[in-house]
Amino acid sequence: MLFTFELDTPKQGLVDITKEVEAAVRESGVYEGICVIFCPHTTASITITENVDPELKADFIMGMDSTFPGLKNYRHTGGNADAHIKSSISGTGETLIVTKGKPLLGQWQGIYFCEFDGKRKRQFFVKVLGE
Q1: Which end of the chain has fewer CB atoms < 10 Å from its terminal CB, N or C?
Q2: With contact defined as beta carbons under 8 Å apart, do 30 and 98 qualify?
Q3: Which residues contact 110 (CB under 8 A, 6 or more apart)?
């Protein structure tokens, strides 16, 4: 079963989408299987990281910015080559095990949509397979 979600993103940052993914798995009725979360954008991504300390989201972006700064000498004419690199490095999707009707996450883990290129209307997809 395929679910489509829309969200408004901040200029840069992580948006917690754990509840949406959990709801999709619940609605799918799958008890044992897999769940794929996919981002169809070239300057955004999906990641799984700690969901306890809210400051980690800012640290994540700061770390990405310091590792992949917005340099003026990039050749990409869109002026956002750094956002494309960040998206490529962090990945456009995640696959989770579904067990007992829930996505399997560690105690401190959450699922995040990562925006690297400005305030936007974005989509992500959740596909749940299994029995």
Answers
A1: C
A2: yes
A3: 16, 18, 48, 49, 50, 51
CA distance 73 to 7: 32
Run of H or E including 57: helix 55-67
- Residue 29 pLDDT exceeds 90: yes
Which two tokens mark 19?
Answer: 């509840």
Give CA–CA dist 124/100, Å, rounded: 24
- Dump pLDDT digits (tens) for 105-120: 999 999 999 999 999 9
CA neighbor of 86 nearest in space, from 62, 112, 59, 68: 68
| Distance (Å, whole) CA 60 – CA 4 | 26
pLDDT at position 71: 87
- pLDDT at residue 27 above 90? yes
Q: Coil, strand or helix: which one is 7?
A: strand
